Amino acid sequence: MMTNAIPSSGHLLEVSGLRVAYGAVEALKGVDLTVGKGQIVTLLGANGAGKSSTLNALVGLAAKKAGRVVFDGHDISGLAPEQIVRCGMTLTPEGRRIFPSLTVDEHLMLGGAMHKARGNIAEVREDMLERFPILKERLGQKAGSLSGGEQQMLAIARAMMSSPDLLLLDEPSLGLAPQVVDLIFDLIAGLRQRGLTILLVEQNVSLSLDIADAGYVMANGRVVLAGTAAELRNSSEIRGAYLGA
Ligand SMILES: Nc1ncnc2c1ncn2[C@@H]1O[C@H](COP(=O)(O)OP(=O)(O)OP(=O)(O)O)[C@@H](O)[C@H]1O
Ligand SMILES: [Mg+2]
């Protein structure tokens, strides 16, 4: 296992000893990870490894049994989900969680309701419509009529309406055609260029390592491998299990 591959200063997020259990199922058995300011860090691992449980616990949606979450120098371990959003950390959940009968604009307004400075919502909305022009064309349309890729863009734009500093993205490429996946990854890279920090859970290991600075591999509720994106790409574990080389 590679250690200390990620510099120990400038971390926006520091997680230590994170444990989550669903009844008798121990999903996280003590997870440690850090995300540097302005970085894209990817969280990889097989189905059931604990990736979603990690993201959900970070935003307060899965109950933590133990562990400490320090965000931007503040211990947010005990905060409720809406308080965590106001601190500047937000989640685009696995499966997108779009409401089929609400319009695109209603989704944006829902995301904006958690904004720390509510006076800026109109401005943030304009910014999102510029960044996601397809959503501008579909503003009054019910979200259930959007394509899978458009729904994923909407889920990201909804999360971005709270003006987060750290975006947690859970499997944004799930179920999308390769061309659409490329588009989503371009959008993610574009968000980072504006200074957003991103923790990205993905099944598409190759594309994730292309845009990430660093990554972690989870198995059975633990981090089993950590390193820079280049180190992970060259590791025999990743090449054997994920990259088919
Ligand atoms: N609500 C729940 N109730 C009971 N068990 C759960 C619940 N959510 C997750 N688990 C279990 O916790 C473990 C970790 O699940 P988790 O969803 O975090 O994995 P994951 O890495 O995101 O997997 P995937 O790649 O399939 O999304 C699994 O064993 C899963 O079955
Ligand atoms: Mg998951």
Automatic annotation (TrEMBL):
The keyword Nucleotide-binding applies. Transmembrane segments: none annotated. Keywords: Amino-acid transport, ATP-binding, Nucleotide-binding, Transport. Belongs to the ABC transporter superfamily. This is ABC transporter ATP-binding protein. Residues 13-245 form the ABC transporter domain. One of its GO terms (molecular function) is ATP binding.
